[in-house]
Amino acid sequence: MGRHFAAGAIIAAGWLAASLPAMAGENYLDLPIGDPARAGRQVTVTLDGVLDTRAGELVTPAEFARRLAGTRVLFIGEEHTTPEFHDVQLAAIKALREAGREVLIGLEMYPYTEPTQLDNWIDGKLTEKGFVDLSGWYVYWSHHWGYYRDIFNYAREQGIRMYGVNLPRTAVNLIREKGFDALDPETRAHLPPKIDTENAEHKRLFRAYFSDDDALHTQMSDAQLESLHRAQVAWDASMGWNAAQALEKHGGKDAIIVIMIGAGHVAYNLGGVHQLEGSYKGEVRSLIPVAVRTAGGKPVGPVRASYADFIWGVPGRDGPGLPVLGVSLAGRIGKEPSKVIQVDKDGSAAQAGVKVGDVIVRLGKTPIGSTTDLQRATGDYAWGDGTALEIRRDGKPMTLDLVFRRPTPKSP
Prior knowledge:
The protein is of the alpha/beta class. It is built from 15 helices and 16 strands.
């Protein structure tokens, strides 16, 4: 399981909230929060069905697009490593295009400071490999390019402009450490004038995504969690605001911008939607795919109707759709950026014998000196591929036999 933030100085590009387990007694899909008109009502998720939670009706993708006729900003939440969520994003974009809408796309993985290579991609000036390398995909993002390939190709085919909407990582770190007032005026202009950091329901949702066995976050103090929540709010506020600014600057009067963003930024309309609505006059709506079964194969129970404006049912999945090693590295917090600080117990690295404290030296023929190096190298492998993994343990070199294996499905 990938995570997009960690304690201390590790702050990455976003929040993979929707794939994190909830705390005991707090099912993040069924919290009585958000829109009061829907917070007291539950709905059933239908596989491959699109549910309008306001009306309580299943609709076709075409009808979904028609019901967004007056919407200017659409947040689509995702689990970053679940292919079916990205299938929904693509289907929604296609439905809007087929309805005759001018569509723009806002991207969580890129900061607003990086427009050039996105333009070059849409204009057909770059190969796929050239775009991934020159745009810094694995510098800004920790997930396999393959999850997003079909969306980026469709955008290029259709001439759909794409915009980075996130804050630079340095700005998020500064907000986390010192607050919003520490930003320089130019950076502050990329956030809405009013930012709500005290919403109690959002704080409840934020904490609901951490499970009791989450070693990185359960040991954090209240002050550390508060600073992490402040970073979360920064992401929420910046991505909605920068998307709306791109829409106003580059879109026509009937255009819509679709923001592809982690579901935790969208859930219950308490993240990006809430932060944007206070400063933006256009209609803002949300869509989140929801798996109809758990990783263990059990049907997902009722979902709170306030979870999103539209809920699109997708199959459940037992693990990431594309290969990952299953480790977290120290990154910038230590002298050895490739030192392992966490190992997913069911991941490929654990199966190969990697332990916390090991230093990853080489994956196959690729030297590993950073998380970015590891992410880029992992993107060259498919499930079932085997290679050598060179590590250093207690100062001694070792070579492990690594096979990229999916986690074994759990019994229902």
